[in-house]
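To whoever is on call:

I kicked off a structure prediction for a single chain this morning and the downstream step that reads the tokens threw a length-mismatch warning. I double-checked the sequence; it's 616 residues and nothing unusual in it as far as I can see. Pasting both halves so you can look.
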Amino acid sequence: MKIKWFQILNFRSITDSGKCYMNEDITIFAGKNESGKSNILKALDAFDKESFDEDIDYPNNIQKNEPQIIVCYSILLNEIQQIYASHLNFELDYPFDHSPKEKFFELIVTKNKNGIKQVSGNWSDIIEPSRVGELKYWAKQFENKVKDLNNDSTLTQELINNLNRVVSNKNAILEINKILQSEIEKEPQYKNNSKIIELLSDYDNYKLFQKIPKQEEMIGLIKLPKMILFNSFTDLLPDKVEETIAVNSTIVKRFFNIVDIKIESIFSETSKQKRKQLVNKASAKITGDFTNFYKQNEVKLTIDIDGSELSFFLYDGDRDDPFKPEQRSQGFQWFLSFYITLMAEKLSDENIILIDEPGLYLHAKAQEDMLRVLEAISEKNQILFTTHSPYLIDTNRLDRVRLVIKENTETRVESKFHKIADKDTLTPIITAIGYDLSKGIAISTELNIVTEGISDYYYLMAMRNYLKIPSSKVTFIPAVGVDQVPNISSILVGWGVPILCLLDNDSQGKGVARKLKDKLGFEEGKEYIFVSDSKIAIEDLFSKEDFLQHILLENDSIDQNQNNSNLASHKGKVIISRSFFERIQSNDLILSEETIKNFVAIFNRMQILIPEHVSV
């Protein structure tokens, strides 16, 4: 179960965040300092703890409205089934066997200072049919089995008549059970009648399903994922620690949790040889795992035990002289604490991890190592973190970014960062996608393709993924509007890297092409190309059917005489392109031959090699 979206109302600087949609793996809240990024995570933490501090968490306004947090979870059918199983103690089969196992439903939970206020969402589409369906099933079972008793010669006619008399009543099952129980008291031999025994057993099942709670009664049965907020990673690994302190130290226990050794077992072991084997095993395991992520230099972590004292040492490369943890830089100690803490907490797949401004003490390369840790953890744990660092923003995954803006003392979250004019807020994005020399690592030495906007970026990334084109040698750099293409191009020319501008075949695109030719000496076909000779914009490379079905997600009330790019302008170009990018990664979409042919053609014109398996 993961967060699909949340909405924060009247919490600190946030009056109404609007619906903030999350990625399944990593979502990044980027923005300048004091924009209110931390308040987003603190609101979710308050939701998890069901605790709101009236002195801190209530908004700074005259109305003093109470905070309210709404979280929408994506829940699978089998997860709904597990909720029932925990209540009924057996698997609920009906009607799940008639439904696709991977279909997601929405479970919306609203909380305020008093805890859970409301549970809603379309997950009730499966709850009530399940509950009502089971009751109808057992009622039908009763009716059929009572009819079978008409032919049972061991029963008295009076009993058969009484059963038939009530079988069609509204409370037939209850009435039939009373009749059978009464008859057994009169005629004990009926206790051995297999059909009556079966009916009584069915009644027990029916009673069980009568207890299935309705949706409004399900609140106490739902086990929501736990949200864990990390404000900092100040619990640093000690140089040495005594047994009495070690067994109660959070960071030491987390260390041994990662290597799957109970710390008590080391101190309780009386054999020196076995003690040594345990600490050697722990040393080898932690070193192997840690060096998979920390790439600044080769580091070996070792543990030593002497009586009741446990010591930690660090070795650089093949050097024989060890360092104590406190002798290393603050940045390294922070990274080690971050790694140990996150890796220990990820052992529970249900946790949703919230991290506020990770990596403040780390330089650029180490921040990229930290991002690798987060990527590994996000395979099973959903991660939400705040940052103003460009080094924590993957230029291939701009879909993860949500911008946090503060206007007139109020914080809001914006997904459409093409609409943001605040340069300070956009700085982490701008820097990450290569407008700044400090982020030179984002620039390819083989080919950099500058697009007019973010939507072009998303479509090209989506189709590159769809066609399974290797991504290592090409970087797509989105401009924030066609007028910015020459500015970005001039920077890239100054850096001496290969560049190709992709322009729309409209008046603005042609105007920019003239600027590129006059000011930078660019030639068409070499440093810039148009989307197509016959198409206006990148949206027009999709067939009409594909664009309506897979991008606009609708066919009705659409003027199909308009071209795709005009239709997109009415729907929020960046939002629908990003949505398509996200869906194409998680769904098995099948695009038409026309669409594939058009995109293969443009990739060929951009000198991007198409895999052999792609046929047109």
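Update from on-call: the warning came from a stale cache, not from the record. Cleared it. Sanity check on the structure: The chain has a mean pLDDT of 79.
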